[in-house]
Amino acid sequence: MGSVCNTAGVVIDGYPVTKYQVSLLEARSIIPMIIFELDVPSKEIFRRLLLEKKKESSLPYPLHNSSQIIAVKNSRYRKNIGEIRQYYEVQHQNWYVIDGFHSKWWIWNEVIKKVKMVNKYMQIYMERIKAGKAACIDKLCISPEELISRLGEFGQFCPVSLAESYELVDCSSNDSLEFAAEFRGHYYKMSSLEKLNKFLDNPEFYVPPLAPHPLPPTDMIPKRLTLSELKSRFPRCAELQGYCPVTYQDGRQRYEALVPGNIHYALEYRDRIYICESGEKLQKFLRSPQKYWNQKLPYKLPPLKEPMYLTSLPLPGYLEQGIATALIKAMNAAGCLKPKFPFLSVQRSALLYIALHLKAFNPNSSEYTRKKYKKKMEQFVERCELITYLSAKMTKKYKEPQFRAIDFDHKLQTFLSLRNIDPVNG
């Protein structure tokens, strides 16, 4: 680019929109300081196209904007823009999406606001670096490769946390440079805005030679293990027999603090494997390994928690663990109803009702099966109520049919027909 462009800057409209155009810019070391993407739905694009076509008659030249051409351009743009956006977001963090559905003035104000923000970051950076101070490197389009190549003595660990509390706070999981700073040509990453401000105010205190604690060697830094990495360490065993070292230490090494760890939260430190109870406990160990690594278990340990199958229990225990709740509900319902089926004993009537209740409210059965047995239970209850009805309506003296209740004869015949039939399926 020319000297004027290098000094005053340049605005490029509609470029890059393909991966090839991105590679051309990178090959010539042209990195846009800020990229704006106007996000407009396809429906709105074609609506605006129709409005423009109404004005074409007043133009002395034809426009290259037919519906087919715009549809092809829009399709190619949607296909390529995702990959380009991801590239700049990862490499330079300079991509901003603006809602293009608003008015031109609103979009203009948003663009000006973002440009002023980036210029302010650049001006503050230049002023502080020129004065020999530490400066934040956010919004400067620094790529991950450049960041790694210029990291200071602490790598991606927070120097402020290491100096103040001797904690190893790993910032590598945060790709943002919001809390990163440059000092004496090296980059440093902090864990929070508070830590960044402390570093910017007094950077000499947190870097050598005045730093109170150097970064431990690589073999003395704890490393989190994935499941595959943990399996590859076999046949090595976990320290503390798999109990969580953080829970045990924070619980003042009491018997109640012996909690088994979860293999999803494993780590390696000093060629030893530790398994923590949760992600929070894992982070505690990673930050302060010196506090948790060297512990010994007591002689008395909790019994191993092994799975026990219900079928292996004795019958009373099996009933208690398997169907206790359902059985209590069924027996309570039978006690409230006190069923007595015609021509059956009270005991057999109650047992049949409990069996139907268990079938009708079994959560493991299908909806069809539950409805089927609910109908059978309702029929069973209706037949049990025949005894109460007939005892109330039947008198010692004979009554002529015209003086009896309307449904008396029908229920009496139903009662007599139940003498020798199956009470459930009959």
UniProtKB/TrEMBL annotation:
UniProt keyword terms in alphabetical order: Cell projection, Cilium, Cilium biogenesis/degradation, Cytoplasm, Cytoskeleton
Gene Ontology cellular component list: axoneme; ciliary basal body
SUPFAM superfamilies, per the entry: P-loop containing nucleoside triphosphate hydrolases
Main location: cytoplasm
InterPro entries the record matches: FAP206, P-loop_NTPase
Superkingdom of the source species: Eukaryota
Any GO BP annotation: sperm axoneme assembly
Gene3D superfamilies: P-loop containing nucleotide triphosphate hydrolases
Subcellular location: Cytoplasm, Cytoskeleton, Cilium axoneme
Cytoplasm in keyword set: yes
Function per UniProt: Essential for sperm motility and is involved in the regulation of the beating frequency of motile cilia on the epithelial cells of the respiratory tract. Required for the establishment of radial spokes in sperm flagella.
Family classification: Belongs to the CFAP206 family.
Descriptive protein name: Cilia- and flagella-associated protein 206
